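Aim 2 progress update. The chain analyzed this quarter is reproduced below.
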Amino acid sequence: IIQNRYRPESYVNFKKICSTKSSTETLKIPTIMWFRNVRFASSLSRNSNTSNIEALKQKRSELLARLEALEVPEKYKGTIWEKWAKYWKNLVIDYKEMIVDTGRTMRQRPVRSGIYLSLLGAGYYCGVRNPDERDFVERFHHYGNELSLVHPASQNPEATRHIQFLQRCYNEGIVRRLSLGVVSFIWVDNYDRAVAVYKAICPYLQPRYMTFHERVVDIGFNNRWWLLERKMEDYDVNEENL
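Predicted structure tokens:
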């Protein structure tokens, strides 16, 4: 009934009924009543939300009281089962306090909480769209097939050299992938994993962190391999023949 009272159709019908009055009264009376009905309905919804929140708080308090009142039977006291039950009980209580404190802090500092939530959402989005080595191999084969359909005289020399270099690295088994959660790096190692010579297994002869950037051949971010795409932008354009 309350919803029908402030629906636009009811407002139009009421305006037709008041058409016999003056133009000022026709616009003033139904407008005031319509806004009163909307205000009354919003107050009812606000009261219902408040009652729901209070009910949830009461249920939470009851559950916590029941949890704290739990006791181990006499036959299990002093055994590993009692320690196990206390561990999980304390764990639940600690998580409850952490969640309550987090909610209180978010209400006190909404701007900072919004920034943190945005960063977490962006990190989750980038982590889901972090490409793997299988995706890199598929992109590499795709661009290699596209390049093979172009006449050698029209192929871009830079794209050709890059595809040939990657093919040689895969043949030697030295391609590696390093994932940082939100971004991935394709880099080249010194030897294949199956090689067991001294230079390949000696920890002092492994690739250094200071020169790691020289070994990176591609960067994967947001479900794209940026260096490979940049190298293959104009793979069918040979500027030397222009």
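The beta strands are 175-179, 184-188, 216-221, 224-225. Residues 1-7, 21-29 have pLDDT under 50 and may be disordered. These observations will guide the mutagenesis experiments scheduled for the next reporting period.
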